[in-house]
């Protein structure tokens, strides 16, 4: 791995090992000597009977409640043969996907009619009358902030990559498929309040996966390439229990998976749009301190601590293990967030406040294979590891204007420092009614909704080098130009 100078780093491998049992969010998984090697397409059986993933293999990266993790921790101390303190290993990828190599795109889906009436606050966030703790706008600001104000929590994940041998624990400096650092403007690519039906009282993993596939269609991500770097956060309303959340049998705060996992409760989900990564993100504040309320901050300032800790945990795990377990996990099946979960603030590798351009959020550290003196550690920051080689430059077209009902067309121009490269184009934040041709970079369509949109266009070449440009596109209800 390349050298780097982290701003904050904690816990040598030996120190982190003391927290391994605390970080068993994915469950302690069999590592008995002489056991048969498990296919990279299937997680090992979870052996810790207190893990929320016990007999629920699809709950990848599951965040146990704090009381449940104490039970897991106690069991692990009494059964050290199953403990794993090793670094993360590359799982070989599933369908060619191990990590998120392009600019991360997060789509927030507020699932169900229970969310109530929509409004918009001064930050442009959707607010909902059925959101008593204000989780919805807080979560939007969290994702808007990743990659802004020079934050280096996102840098920890950039050390991991695709394109290495199964079982590798590092990525060579020449590797061009590292996890990407977020593009300017954060990772939030869209928000959808799906009020077409009520969210189930206890949605199955299959139902959550179906909602993620529906969301891909809603956002116009109808090809495998448009979903390659996307993840869908399925947020259930207060009072519901997705996959048994907040019940006597579901002592967890969240988990993530992908649609093709055959172990999903209810079965795998068919997708005509390629592989779909999604997160089961329940209404975190329903669980109070069990899922992190006031874990870092006291009083009202810490009411939503668990929302950012838990969802940051799942985001970090998705981009390093997008189609689990084909990405980076240790021999127990734990992902980078699991190994550092619920470590008390002020201790080695503990939770902390992360400041971004959109606010301050309670966060947990994540695992770095190249931690202190080359040993693994739970880190809050890490120098960004960039993909070497090609440089892609996107020409900023400048701010655009248009009118509802008037066709618009804009050709995005991009260049590559290497010859013979084929560029693939994508865009986030486009005005409703417009889309981008992934091959040509032409944005076209007829705007349907008057608003000012924050657009980011990205061009990526065949080595996964990419470049982006951001601009605004104002659509008026009458008058104005065509946005050429």
| Tally of distinct domains | 2
- Distance between termini? 45 Å
How does the helix and strand content classify structurally?
alpha+beta
- Rg, please? 21 Å
Strand content: 15-25%
Main beta sheet strand tally, sense and closure: 6 strands, mixed
Listing every helix as H and every strand as E from the N terminus to the C terminus, the arrangement reads EHEHEEEEHEHEEEHEEEEEEEEEEEEEE
SS summary, helix count: 5
Overall geometry: globular
Question: Kindly state the mean pLDDT as a whole number?
Answer: 88
Helix content: 10-25%
Extended strand count:
24
Physical arrangement of strands within the biggest beta sheet: 2-9-10-8-4-7
Poorly predicted regions are 1-43, 480-484
In short:
By secondary structure, this protein is α+β, with helices and mostly antiparallel strands. It has helices at residues 13-17, 66-78, 135-145, 205-218, 305-320; strands spanning 9-10, 60-64, 89-90, 105-111, 118-120, 126-128, 188-194, 230-235, 252-258, 277-281, 328-329, 352-356, 359-363, 366-368, 377-379, 392-394, 400-403, 408-411, 414-416, 424-428, 434-436, 442-445, 451-460, 466-476.
């Amino acid at each position: 791995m390349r050298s780097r100078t982290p701003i904050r780093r904690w816990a040598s491998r030996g120190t982190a090992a003391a927290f391994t049992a605390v970080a068993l969010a994915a469950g302690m998984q069999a590592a008995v000597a002489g056991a048969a090697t498990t296919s990279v397409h299937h997680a090992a059986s979870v052996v810790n009977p207190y893990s929320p993933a016990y007999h629920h293999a699809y709950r990848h990266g599951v965040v146990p409640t704090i009381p449940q993790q104490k039970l897991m921790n106690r069991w692990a101390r009494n059964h050290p043969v199953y403990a794993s303190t090793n670094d993360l290993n590359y799982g070989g990828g599933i369908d060619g996907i191990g990590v998120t190599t392009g600019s991360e795109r997060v789509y927030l889906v507020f699932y169900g009619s229970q969310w109530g009436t929509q409004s918009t606050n001064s930050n442009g966030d959707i607010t909902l009358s059925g959101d008593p703790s204000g989780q919805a706008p807080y979560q939007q600001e969290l994702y808007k902030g990743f990659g802004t104000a020079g934050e280096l929590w996102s840098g920890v994940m950039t050390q991991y990559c695709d394109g290495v041998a199964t079982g590798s624990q590092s990525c060579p400096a020449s590797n061009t498929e590292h996890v990407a650092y977020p593009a300017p403007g954060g990772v939030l690519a869209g928000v959808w309040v799906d009020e077409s039906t009520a969210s189930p009282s206890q949605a199955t993993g299959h139902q959550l996966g179906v909602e993620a596939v529906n969301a891909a269609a809603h956002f116009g991500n109808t090809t495998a390439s448009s979903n390659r770097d996307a993840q869908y956060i399925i947020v259930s309303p207060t009072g519901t229990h997705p996959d048994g959340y907040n019940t006597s049998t579901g002592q967890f705060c969240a988990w993530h998976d992908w649609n093709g996992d055959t172990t999903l409760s209810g079965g795998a989900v068919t997708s005509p749009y390629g592989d779909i990564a999604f997160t089961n993100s329940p209404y975190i504040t329903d669980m109070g301190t069990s899922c992190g309320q006031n874990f870092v901050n006291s009083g009202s300032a810490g009411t939503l601590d668990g929302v950012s800790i838990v969802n940051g945990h799942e985001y970090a795990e998705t981009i390093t293990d997008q189609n689990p377990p084909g990405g980076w996990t240790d021999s127990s099946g734990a992902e980078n967030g699991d190994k550092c979960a619920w470590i008390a603030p002020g201790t080695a590798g503990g939770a902390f406040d992360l400041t971004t351009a959109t606010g301050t959020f309670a966060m947990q550290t994540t695992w770095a294979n190249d931690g202190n003196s080359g040993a693994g550690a739970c880190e809050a920051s890490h120098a960004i590891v960039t993909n070497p080689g090609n440089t892609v430059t996107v020409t900023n077209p400048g701010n655009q204007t248009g009118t509802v009902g008037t066709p618009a067309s804009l050709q995005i121009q991009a260049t590559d420092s290497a010859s013979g490269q084929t560029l693939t184009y994508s865009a986030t934040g486009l005005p409703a009614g417009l889309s981008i041709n992934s091959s040509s970079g032409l944005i076209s369509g007829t705007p349907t909704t008057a608003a000012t949109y924050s657009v980011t266009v990205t061009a990526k070449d065949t080595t996964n080098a990419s470049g982006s440009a951001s601009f605004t596109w104002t659509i008026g209800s009458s008058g104005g130009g065509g946005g050429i």
